[in-house]
């Protein structure tokens, strides 16, 4: 019985720790939104897809203030990258110089990462609204390598990643 009680205290303590602000977490207590993004997961759209989805069919939603953590893995034969940019119907020819949020871009997005490589992007979703998640390698977003990224004004929104068929 004593043993069980001690375990319960440890578990409660760990749960409390998870809610504390720390590296990669919003100081304001924003939810952690962690997603795995795979460039060229399938051959769809000439491999220009994220998690198999092209042309805005991948949709990520996070609450305002979320500490977003995106891990990009490249399974394709071409270089790929990831950048969050403000929503636009005029897809850019390549990565923008400045992402929508500080840190919301992989290193050297116009060069990208190669097959088998991984890059992590961490940022705070500080402003509600609609954004695009694009591949910044020249030509890829224009050819359909982009998804939608939405920041909900409601802190109660659960982070989600949906692929529209
Ligand atoms: Cu790409």
TrEMBL record:
Coiled coil: none annotated. GO terms for molecular function: metal ion binding. Gene3D superfamilies: Cupredoxins - blue copper proteins. SUPFAM superfamilies: Cupredoxins. Residues 1-26 form the signal peptide. This is Sulfocyanin-like C-terminal domain-containing protein. Keywords: Copper, Metal-binding, Signal. It comes from Candidatus Segetimicrobium genomatis. The lineage of its organism: Bacteria, Bacillati, Candidatus Sysuimicrobiota, Candidatus Sysuimicrobiia, Candidatus Sysuimicrobiales. It comes from the Bacteria. The keyword Metal-binding applies. Residues 35-155 form the Sulfocyanin-like C-terminal domain.
